[in-house]
Amino acid sequence: MSRKPHTTRSARKRARILLVDDHPLVRERLAEIINREADLTVCGEAEDRHEAIAAIAARRPDLAIVDLTLKNSDGLELIKDIRSRWPKVRILVVSMHDESLYAERVIRLGAMGYITKQEASRRILLAIRRVLAGSIYLNERVAARIVGRLGTHSGSGTETPADVLADRELQVFNLIGRGLNTGEIAARLHIAVKTVETYRARTKEKLKLRNSSELLQVAIAWTHGR
After folding, report:
1. Which CATH number fits domain 7-146: 3.20.20.140, 3.90.470.20, 3.40.50.2300, 3.40.50.1000?
2. From CA 193, how far away is CA 185, in angstroms rounded?
3. What is the pLDDT of residues 144-170, one digit of tens each?
4. What is the pTM of this model?
5. Which residues 6+ apart lie within 8 Å of 71 measured at CB?
């Protein structure tokens, strides 16, 4: 029996995917899942924003899979970098954070999909192929919530930190929730300590929090999806 259909599929150009995650085991798992597929291949890996930018410039992937928490950097800033420098590179966020916390924010920044690392391999592959095809991929529940909010957004008191905080404020808020102090946040984001303090003050005001203790409690609860 002829095996021509299999040969033809294997000969097709495989979509090139860059993995950006600060955990080697996560990158290894994703690479194993992706490289088993006849139409997909991992063309490179990076653990932070600077490595990712260099890898995209050198390898020109079709898709970048990006985590939101990166070594010495932040996934939100990387998404903005990619969209401004390489608008044809599609972006799928694969993160440990609950979609309800970040999905709408990353879509607004230019990513085309969001899926958690806990999802089954088949769901991750579905997300990859849908984004490569030019479609948005979101969990059905989250997509429905976003559509509903677009139609009813009216300051009803149900806004989350992702709704009211600017990008840099959200980054600082997330790092507070991960237990970093002001100096550590400044070093991580490459900004001045006073700038971090300003973002902290703005965040407290926007979230109507009375003090730093409340800010820490709310940030921890939000960052861990509770």
Report:
1. 3.40.50.2300
2. 8
3. 666 655 554 444 455 677 778 887 888
4. 0.72
5. 22, 47, 48
